[in-house]
TrEMBL record:
This is LYR motif-containing protein 2. Residues 20-78 form the Complex 1 LYR protein domain. Belongs to the complex I LYR family. It is found in: Mitochondrion. Its main location: mitochondrion. Keywords: Mitochondrion, Transit peptide. GO terms for biological process: mitochondrial respiratory chain complex I assembly. It comes from the Eukaryota. The keyword Transmembrane does not apply. The gene is LYRM2. The keyword Plastid does not apply. Involved in efficient integration of the N-module into mitochondrial respiratory chain complex I. GO terms for cellular component: mitochondrion.
Amino acid sequence: MATSRLPPATLTLKQFMRRQQVLLLYRRILQAIRQVPNDSDRKYLKDWAREEFKRNKSTTEEDTIRMMITQGNMQLKELEKTLALARS
């Protein structure tokens, strides 16, 4: 019998949309980190981002997830500002 590649529980539309937001944020953070010029800093930031997302993977409360997305977006903006200043 073939195993299903679908998650064990079906997501609601709201959960699906939140998941998409989280994945987009993760991708944007990794894209910004790729622009860090120093190899050791880039590795540190990449490991940090990966660990933060893994650590919070099991969070299910809607308000907590929304707050973490907001914090992640603020941290991303701060990283982008820092990178822009470093380039100028």
